[in-house]
Structure formats: C-alpha cells, structure tokens
Amino acid sequence: MRTRRTGFTLVEMLVVITIIGMLMALLLPAINSAREAARQAVCTTNQQNLAKAIQSFATSKMRLPPSMSLAHQVAAVGDPDFSRNRVWGWVPPLLPELNHTDTYDAMLDTIGQNTAAYESIFTTLYYSEYNCPSTTRENLDQPWLSYYVNGGRANAAIAGLDDSGAYSPELFGYSTEMGTVAITRPPDWRENGAVMMRLRVIHPSTGNVVTINNQTNTLDDIHDGQSMTVLIAENCNPRGGDLGNTWSNTYIDPTGNVAIDPPQEHHNVIMWHMPGESLENGARVGINQHKDDVLDTAHARPASFHPGLVIVTFVDGHTQKISETIDYRVYSLIMTSHGRGVRNPATGASEPQIGPSWPNGGMVSEADLAL
Known about the structure:
This protein is α+β, with helices and mostly antiparallel strands and 371 residues long. It has one domain. Helices cover 22% and strands 13% of the residues. It is built from 5 helices and 13 strands. It has helices at residues 10-61, 101-111, 115-120, 328-335, 366-369; strands spanning 68-70, 87-89, 147-153, 200-202, 209-211, 230-234, 250-252, 258-260, 269-272, 278-279, 282-283, 309-314, 319-323. It has a 5-stranded mixed beta sheet. A two-stranded antiparallel ribbon has the order 1-2. The protein has a two-stranded antiparallel ribbon with strand order 4-5. A hairpin with a 2-residue loop joins strand 10 (278-279) and strand 11. The longest helix is centred in the first third of the chain and has 52 residues, at 10-61. The radius of gyration is 24 Å and the shape is globular.
C-alpha cells in the first residue's frame, strides 16, 4: 500500500521562498511609488486649500495677506512684557478662512494678557493640513509649517536712525534703524513676488508704531498672470533647535522653552535671486539642493522630500509639479509678478534682465514647466 506524502521537501520550500522574495522585490517599488503618489496628492490638496483661503482673504480684504505683519492689537498693549515686537507670519491672519477661528481668537486673547499666556498657545499648535505628509516633525525638528508663500527677492537694508542710534539691526533679516529719518523706499517691491511684508514695529523710545512697509499686492497686481505666478511652495529645510516656526515670532529655544524673537524673512517665504547672483552667506542654492542644511536666506527656495520634484501652487489656485532640474531662469520668472518690471531690492532700480530676453517676451510657457 502506497503512503501519501503530507509534507514538502526542503527544496520545494526554498523554491516557494525564492518566488515570494522575487514577488516582493517586484511589488515593493510599486507599493512605495503608490504611497508617495498618495502623499503628493495630500500635499497638493493642502496647498490648494491654503490657496483658496488666500483668495478668500484677498476678496474680503482687497489685498493678498502679508508674509509678515505686526500681530493684531499689539499697539494697544502697554504691558512691559510687550516691549518686544509681536510679529507673526502669513498663517495667523488666514486662520478664520481656514475654519480655525477659535485658534485665531485664542491668539488675540493671549496677546492682551501676558507673555506666558501668549507663548503657551504655541506649544501644541499643529495642524496636519499645513504640513506635507512626506515631511514629519521628527525629521525636521520643528516643521510646524511645510508651506511658504512667494516673497520675491531678498530684501535689502533700510537706512535710518532711531533715538538710541542702534535699533535691532538683525530684526527681520535687514537693518531697521529708524525713527527721525524717513524711510524712503519699501523693503519689498510688488514686481518681484506675489506677497509682501506689511511691517510695523514699536519704536523703542516713544512706544509709537513705526511703519516700515504698508504696501501689499492685490490679485490685479499679478501682472504676468495668476496662472504663471507662484503663490505657495514647499520648503523642508530644518529650522534648527533655536529658530522659530513660521506662524509667529514664537519658537522653542534650545532648552525646550517657548520664547519670543522677531522672525526673519526666510522663515516665512520662498525667494529667488537674480540668476548668477551670489549672497553674503554663499552662492544661491537651487531647488532641492542642501535640504539638510539649517534654513537661511540661501535656502529660501522650494525644497521637498518628494523624489526629484517639488509641488507649487500658483495664484490662480492650480498646483503643479516642478522638476528640481528646472532652468533657474524659468523659476525666477514664475516667482515674479511682473518679470519685465523686476527691481533691485537695494536701489529700487529697474533690473529686468530675466524677462525681456526670454522667449515670448519674458513669459513662461507650459513647456518650460514640464517635468
């Protein structure tokens, strides 16, 4: 009588394991690709929602939100705890448009109380919809915000003199020595980007609010077209242990405590520099280059953990994937709101080299942006 075999041989088991391994090797890239595609879809939706909030803000306020501004109600506060300027980024003014009115109201309430109350709200402030899912808080120290608005070119120093002769020269990333000498030019130029700083600070001697720049862009100021001017992009560079989130001038200091310090422009915006232009802290950094370096002016450009690309959103609300190898001149053009009218940040003089000599008179085509 023949005995029925109920098991399998070692060779058969090894063959099965080999086949499973080969299938996994074939499927894993597809699974990873599908996961990344899903993350990109979420990132795209996040940016579109932010763009809708900005458009809603622009419709109701008749201007685009500023990249940085004096926190509401600060001028009315006489408490000595508020001797330092409360400046916040572009997100807080948008919170009511983003269905977070409660958070916005809490911010306003704490501004009028004391420093500890104002600081405490930021220890847990985090909304996933403002962060790309390819970026985590763990791998970026404090990425409370993955998305930055288009701030144009880096600002230049503003000349002036206050009563003491030296007023926080590092404030906002450029000199703000002011007071008796009138400020004759703004730090931002409408032609160079989509959003502008709307900065006012409290004079250290008089306590009066001093206006640095009160200009803002409107949707009508986007001369080159809303579909060809970048509004929002990602930036994944780490801010370091002592640099703030881009919600406000509140940050976690190296000891883990919440502290206050005026933000700098690159904490809030992406920027571009004239092709070939060098910066004080080194040459311009291209898209997705040096993503592990601590954020500074040179790194205020789109950067993401999406392989080979970044996702940007234009003023009209549509999103697009941009290759990290995009011609830097094309990037410069889509960052300007008026490529033919580009200005030198230091002098305000017309400096439109990037525009008129480009094909189509300085206008970017879809082919220029294709991956």
